[in-house]
Every structure is written in structure tokens, then in C-alpha cells.
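Why does residue order matter? Because the sequence determines the fold. Keep that principle in mind as you read this record.
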Amino acid sequence: KSRGPTLASVAMDEPPQVPRLVGSVIDDIGMGPYQVKETALSGCVALAEGAELLLISSVTRAVAEDWGLTTTQKGGVVSVVFMGVLIGTLISGPCSDRVGRQRPIMIGIAAIAIFSILSAFTIGFWTLSIVRGIVGLAFGFGVPVSAAYCLEVAPTSWRSFSCVLLNLFYSAGEAYSVYIIWLDDPSMKHLHWRWLLIVGALPTIILTFLSAAFLNESPSWLASQGKEEDAMDVLVKMNKANGSPCARLEFSTAPREEANVLGSFAEMQRDFRAIFGPAMLYSTLVSCFTCFCMNVLYYGGLYAFPQVLSEDVATGTSPAFALLIGCFWEAPGYIMALSYDRVMGRRLTLVFNLTALVVCVLAFVHGGSNNQESMVEYVMVRFGYAGYKCLAITLNLVAFTYAAEIYPVSCRVTGSGLSIGVGRIGAVTAPLAYEWTREFSGTWTTFFYILACLVILDATLVAFLPFETRGKVLKESMDDSHETDPLCQPAECT
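Structure:
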């Protein structure tokens, strides 16, 4: 039996055939239990992020009352988490592109579990900020890798489904947090925040052990590093788990660039030359800005809604129950993301939903600021709130999927991690921006008007993105062909 330097095969009795990329082999194997299992195991990071972020956003008032925090400190308790996320995200890309996907995911999950428990035993603003910052760093370290991994093990036509499945864990984490908040105090005025932080971390602890036992490595990453035998072992596992009739698992890998043998610094230089090169520069910048807007929008809402719904806008239910309703409204967002994937490209989906989101934000602000004096305003509040929660999920899914799909495997986590990292700057500033704009203007509506302006600008920039990735096999090198027609110009179908 012979083996070429970049060729792996388990089908030696068949006539010679043209070798394929790992992504094409996965397409032949198809979607099945293997992908569901791997997405669920790597989704522990998303579950923990959803649970912890909603918890800390909801208990800030209780923490502020216990410790007498200022307005800036109150927002800072949440902003420091996203600062950690930003740092972790920037670290995770270069790390994962060199050591793989499995170990960074495991390190992230374990760190989240440990420091989430420790945060319940802090004694002041600074100790809580340090511990929560480390929790955020663990989020940032694990989430981009988890997202890239799920895309790499999914068939081309199922990538959106895998992304939706991964993000369902985030919403499940949010729903779990809202449930324990509701058990503690539906009015959210007298929350026992230490108890909530401990109970909120319990699912993460359990799932950490499951992931350590059963999570596999990405075959695409293994192949890109010249580990063809290990990649083949994973593909055989995938084929067996899915019960696929695929008998031909041979694949080829893209030629490894000279920088791969020169060291980590040279590899990083190669990655950033690709990410910021002429072909990718505009896409990288717009992807970063889109992720920034999505973070301000989503996490700004995550911080603002618990306060707005409990103090300013009446919904006819308890604040905790209103937050739970918001979690349920995220479910249609996942369905919409899957539906859009069947009928339109990533860019058109982004533009369409950004425009619809502006309408929802303005509807919520108008109805809420007028105290729902008429039935129209009553409906506008509910329509705006439901649309906000639903569309924010759809946009996050599509934006982060696009950010990972446009880069080749050699720098995929670095490129997508850069977009997510810049996006996290929006998450860092959102809580403080809400507190400062409310203190300066005297009303909660100013923050939401700023959100609407950011979304309008982002929709304009997205219309000029040159690459469409829907239905395309993930690239393994920058030499792969691209579509290069902006959405705002007539583009030839491929």
C-alpha cells in the first residue's frame, strides 16, 4: 500500500480517482448523528456564555445595591466581561490555527466553569471585575473555535443548520438563567445574586466532563497540518457514525505554504497578509463592523432590557417573565436563518434583516416612550420587542457564519476571530453606553436611537460586500476562486 505526501485513502481496491478536499469528502458523507454530537459537545461554550451573560446583566442592580456602586461601576461589571471576551477572541485565532480546535474548546469550557463559581465568592467591585474578566476571556477563547469547528465538520448544504444548532445552546443558556431568576424573584428587585451565579454554572460543570470524554478534532485542520492519517481516522468515525454508504474517503490537501515551517510568528504574518490583502480587505473591514454592530445591538439589548422592562416599559407581566418571552422569541430567529439559507444569499439576508431591525427598534422606542397610551402603541411595544429579539438572533447567525466562511482553513479562526474580537468591542461599550446616555439625556430611548443609526450604516456597507459564500465549499487556500460582484451591482449567477 502506498501513500503520497498529501494523500490519504481507505479505498485501495478502487480505480484511481481524482482526489478531493476534506470538505468534499464530508459533503459525500452527509449530515448525521456525528455532526449533531460534535455540535452539542462544542456548544457547551455557547450554553455557558448565554447563561452567564444574561445572569450578570440581570443581577447588576442587586450587586450595585449591596456594594453601593456608581453608575460607571454598575456598567463596568458587565463591560469587563466583554473586555475579557475581546482579549480571549484575539488570542484564540492564532492559538487554534496552530494547536487545533479540540484543546482550545476544552480549555475555554473548563475555565468558564471554574471562574463562574469563584465569582460568587468575590468581596468587592475589583475582585468581581477580575474574576468576571477571566470568565469573559474564557468565552472569547472558546466561542470562535467552537463556531469554526462546527462549520468545518458540517456538509456544505448543512452549515447554516449546524450554526443554528450551536446557537440554540446559547438561547438554552439564557432560558435557564431566566428560569432560575424567575424562581428567585419574578420582580427582579431583590435577587440573591451569589446563589444565582453558583446555580447558573452547574450545567457548564456537567457538560465539561462530557466534552472532555467525547469531543473530536477537526479533520480539515488535521489535513491542513499534514496529519493525513489522523484526519482519515476522524473521517472514518464520521462515516461510521452517520451510517453513510460513502466508500471513498480519499482526500488531498492544499500545498502547505513555506511559512508553515518557519515558526508561529511567520505563520501569523502570512495569515494577516491574507486577511488584510487586497482581495479580502473590504470584506474583513465590513465583517468587523457588522460584528461590532451586532454586538452593540444584541448585548446592549441584553443589558438594557432587564432594566427597561422592570423600570420604564410595562408589559403586563413580571419583568422576569417578559425576559423569558424574549428568549422564546429567539426561536423564530433560528428558523428564519435556516429559511433564508434556502432562498437567498448571505449578503441579501443581512441587508434585508438589518432594514427590518431598524423598523422594530423604532417601533419599540415609540410605543414604550409614550407609555402605551393607545392600542397602537401597545402593539408597537410587543411587535418591536419580539422583532428585536428574533432578528438579532438571525443577524448574529448569518454575520458570524459569513465571517468564518470567507477565509481559508489556514487562517479561518484568525480571520473570524478578528471579526468577532472587534465585534466584542461593541459588547464592551454597550453597557457603559447605555448607562452614560441615560444619565446624560435622562431617558432610555437615546441608546436605542443610536442603535438604529448604526444598523442603517451597516446595511449600506454590507450591500457592497464582494463575496457570496452560500452553497460554496469552504476554501482551503487563497488561490480558490471567488465571486467578486457586490450585491448592489448585477452579479452573474454561479
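Residues 313 and 371 are 7 Å apart (CA to CA).
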